[in-house]
Design brief:
six-stranded mixed beta sheet, mainly beta, about 130 residues, OB fold (Dihydrolipoamide Acetyltransferase, E2P), about 0% helix
Length: about 130
């Protein structure tokens, strides 16, 4: 299906709610991207700046995000949503180039991360890595 960039500037505070964990296969082996880098999944709470609704999304990155503490505000670089359908089930998975602490120290930051934007042309198929 389609990979679509997510404009993180339209979101309010993004917080880490589940620290990074290895993304594993059903056999317990850590999944890897096309280049062989280990994949990690981090649970983030997100909300639109103008609303009260909050969602938790699980974002996959190549390489382990460093310095994230649960509850801390984070900055997400190049967030992409991928709609998928398998055996009659559908959903959306999320990938990002990086997840970093908004404050740079792993503690809660003060407001949206400056300069957070979507860039690049990653509109390639996820190939089941999501």
């Amino acid at each position: 299906m389609d990979n679509k960039p997510v404009d993180v500037t339209r979101l309010g505070a993004i917080r880490c709610v589940i620290a990074p964990e290895p993304r594993t296969t059903p056999d317990g082996e850590q999944r890897r991207d096309r280049e062989g880098n280990p994949l990690w999944v981090t649970g983030l709470s997100v909300r639109q700046a103008e609303g009260r609704r909050t969602d938790v999304v699980h974002v996959v990155t190549s390489g382990q995000p460093q310095g994230l503490a649960e509850g801390s505000e984070v900055k997400v670089t190049n967030l992409w949503a991928n709609e998928w359908a398998v055996d009659g089930r559908t959903g959306t998975s999320f990938r990002a180039d990086a997840i970093t602490s908004a404050s740079g120290s792993g503690t809660s930051g003060g407001g949206p991360a400056p300069g957070a934007s979507v860039a690049g042309a990653r509109g390639k198929p996820a190939g089941g890595d999501s």
